[in-house]
Amino acid sequence: AEVSQGHISVVLLGATGDLAKKYLWQGLFQLYMDQVSSGHSFTFHGAALTALEPGQRLMFDVLKKLACPPDESPNRCAVLKDQFLKLSQYHQLKTAENYTVLNREIETLLRQEGLKEAGRIFYFSVPPFAYTEIARHINSSCRPPPGAWLRVVLEKPFGHDLESAQQLAAELTSFFREEEMYRVDHYLGKQAIAHILPFRDQNRQLQETTSVYQHLTSSLSSGRTSFYEQYGVIRDVLQNHLTEALMFLTMELPANVSRAKEVLQCKLQAFQSLRGLEKNSAVVGQYQAYASQVQEELQKAQDYISTTPTFAGVLIHSDNLRWEGVPFLLTSGKALDERVGYVRVLFKNRAYCTQSETLRDAVHSQCKAKQIIFYIGHGALNTPAVLVSRNLFRPVMPEGSWREAVGRSDLHIFGQPLSDYYVYSPVKERDAYSVLISNIYHGRKDFFITTENLLASWGFWTPLLDSISHQPLRLYPGGVENQHLLDFEMVSGEVAFTLAEPMELLKPNRLMPTDYRTIQSKFRQSPLISAWSEDLISQLASDIEKTASGTVARSGQFHLALSGGSSPVILFQRLARHHYAFPWKHTHIWLVDERCVPLTDTESNFFSLHNHLLQSVRVPYFNVHPMPVHLNQRLCVEEDRGTELYAKEIMALVANASFDLVLLGVGVDGHTASLFPQSENGLEGAQTVVLTESPVKPHQRMSLSLPLINKARQVFVLVLGKGKHDITTLLSRVGHEPRKWPVSGVSPSSGQLVWYVDYEALLG
Question: Which segments constitute the Glucose-6-phosphate dehydrogenase NAD-binding domain (predicted)?
Fold first, then answer.
């Protein structure tokens, strides 16, 4: 990157903390060694709340232990280390006045030395609760003059859910511009992860990217109990480290992978393609000794029960067509059998080998696993590496930074000897923080987390975190004793542990959704099925599939009429993701009602149906029947006869105009479809499709009439949420009064009506 010559002041806040001691000072020293001849001059300012004298002593104890790389000559190392210590000084930064003094000292030094200021780096190695106050002080009294840049480096956690991340981001953006903020994820500095994008770019022609299975995993060492108890494994590792690696794997490659702006844009698009997570997208566990460690280290009472997961496996899918049908597994945990991190890409194998594999070498064996592994570190190799199966392809690797290593046959990676792989390791191993600090110096934003990407990530993970917050955790003993306890499998788009629970789980002191069985009884003299919403939707989706399969077996086709609104959305998603045996090829999809807006409008029921169901299943195009609300470049005008057109289409295709199944919802005012209390049309009479008026915008609607709905062979009514409790209670008491409560008029003349009501709507 192009950088102007001049002086750079680096201010490390939290200069005596653990992160600074272990990594940051060493990273800053490496930056100085790399750039001492670049034309820039440097000063390094360690800062903390500690008073001047003890703070200086603590900081210089760390600086004296700094080390040079093995290939650095001892003489040069001694000189550079001595210079670095002379350029480093400690400051107590506690008050606004302290920041003003620091700024004055930097300006005085520049003036005395006759130096031009290139920029300032402020590295926040402090807890996030301190960010806002520090940001205010820097913004008010420590900004460099015009013409010099400011780079503010922030360490995670960046919130613990979407709302807290939004709040923190809003506070920071009131002081700093987006281009000034560098949010660190140290995994992006790890050499194997940092090479995923260049590897894909340099081997574009060789990757059969439509036929793979991806596995990203990280095993953790113990420590930081107070932090971990608040955040858990998903927030600590999956939401950031492994998600970032996933983005590098799944994003569309920009024309130039060296252009930060293009990379960040492609990354954001990859986020937007991820399919939403549900409770059954994850399995979670906790090692047995964790609870007692929390009680002891955090001085919790003996009856304290931790619900923090220390292990998680999550199944993710992308709606990008390139990745259709490809599962991505993210796993991480404490107290596993080894500490290791890797990104594994396993290719589908289409070959069948008739004769023994033992006589074939790895290059020509098409039946051995084909995989690419970005080995982050630790484990059997104990070094960063890129491994490619010899029966896949010989990769193109940059000669200056990666070299081919000899694959030892006595070492096995994923069940295969190392000699079965092309193995590459870095020419020069570099610590992740050294890599990232160098990128900060060069202004390489693509190695950091932008506000937009941060919020996209939290938007993706927060619904899952909410849904599993009270989910029982699988207990595991830790280490090799785990055996197969944490093995899990993919079934119908969900994940579940392979083995049954061998011991009683700890549960929070409250009833869980799984503590209730599905209730089956009567509601308004018709069958009632009730459960927690997630279980209810699962049951409803299964019942719809069963009805569809039976109808297709009898008559060859299935006519399904679906309502709009918010309630059916999770049903549509369930049908799209978990019901692969659904006879979509023989299904006709009709609309129960539609808002008088263009079908491409987000308010359109068809738009929602398309987004959440139709684009994910293989329904023949000519079997989809949207309501004709948009004719002659105008919306729902009677002279255009849209209602007649839809009625004729139904008469032409649906035998006796009797749908096989109609799905309805209920509004808080008792409306169903777009038939509202006191509606002039649709509650009675011969018309089958009508125009109606809604009390809320958009007012104009098109709807199937009540008489047509009542001709259906089956009608399912779905009612979800506490907001529907009052109307549910009212409907349980009133009779057939469709002019007051249109849904009370739903009574199939020769079919069956079934109510699907969740506990919140039923019980409040």
Answer: 11-193
Which pLDDT band, with edges at 50, 70 and 90, does 514 fall under?
A: very low
How is residue 242 written in tokens?
A: 């492994």
Q: What is the pLDDT of residues 658-710, one digit of tens each?
A: 999 999 999 999 999 999 999 889 999 999 999 999 999 888 999 999 999 99
Q: What would the mean pLDDT of 72-98 be, rounded to a whole number? A: 94
Nearest Cα to 185, choosing from 514, 447, 464, 574?
A: 447
Q: What sign for the dihedral angle of Cα 537, 541, 546, 547?
A: positive
Instruction: Please tell me the predicted confidence (pLDDT) of residue 378.
Output: 87
Q: What is the dihedral of CA 735, 737, 741, 743, to 10 degrees?
A: 70
In 592-713 the beta strands, taken as DSSP E runs, fall at: 593-595, 624-625, 630-631, 634-635, 661-665, 689-693, 700-704
DSSP conformational letter for 252: P
- Greatest alpha-carbon span in the chain: 99
Q: Which helix (H) or strand (E) holds 284?
A: strand 282-287
- Closest CA relative to residue 265, chosen from 276, 254, 273: 254
pTM: 0.76
Q: How many helices (H) and strands (E) does the chain have?
A: 22, 33
Give the mean model confidence (pLDDT) for residues 544-569: 94
Catalytic residue chosen out of the listed positions 241, 559, 588, 625: 241
The alpha carbon dihedral of 174, 175, 179, 185 has a sign of negative
**What does the alpha-carbon distance between residue 66 and residue 392 come to, in Å, rounded to a whole number?**
43
Sign of CA dihedral 563, 712, 552, 529: positive
For residues 377 and 397, what is the distance between their CA atoms, to the nearest angstrom? Answer: 19
12 vs 315: CA distance, rounded Å: 39
Q: In what order do the strands lie in the sheet with 689-693?
A: 593-595, 700-704, 689-693
- Quick check: is 195 catalytic? no
- Evaluate whether 189 touches 180 at the Cβ level (below 8 Å): no
Query: What does the alpha-carbon distance between residue 70 and residue 85 come to, in Å, rounded to a whole number?
Result: 20
Output 138 or 260, whichever has higher pLDDT: 138
Burial of 287-319, coded b for 16+ CB within 10 Å and e otherwise, reads beebbeebbeeeeeeeeeebbbbbbbbbbbbbe
> E strands within 592-746?
593-595, 624-625, 630-631, 634-635, 661-665, 689-693, 700-704, 714-719
Structure tokens at 1: 């990157």
Rg of the chain's alpha carbons, rounded to an integer? 31
What is the pLDDT at residue 359?
Answer: 55
